[in-house]
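Give me the fold.
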Amino acid sequence: SDDQVEEVEDEAEEGGDDIQEYEEEDEPLIVTSDLLSHAPDGECNWDVWLSMTRRWPQLQIKIGVPVFFRRSGYLRVKLNVECLRELEMALQQERKERQLEKAERLKR
């Protein structure tokens, strides 16, 4: 929305280097969270899965190969949602650790 665009613009004005670092390091977490929002029960349209794996190719390696099936003429994907949730938690923890390390470096 417009608020999100303004936030991104504000962050970009404050320091462009941080934005690039954030995107690269946090893309797996962003992809994982996005996928969970599209598939909270572990099921989504195939194009959502395709989009997420394009954004983060290692996703399939991390959570396994999904099951493709048809429902009402639409191609759907069934994911291991428990594995996806565990991955999201692990990525959140890694992000917290990176942020703490960065804060410690800035203190020095």
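The helical segments are 2-14, 16-38, 46-55, 59-63, 81-107.
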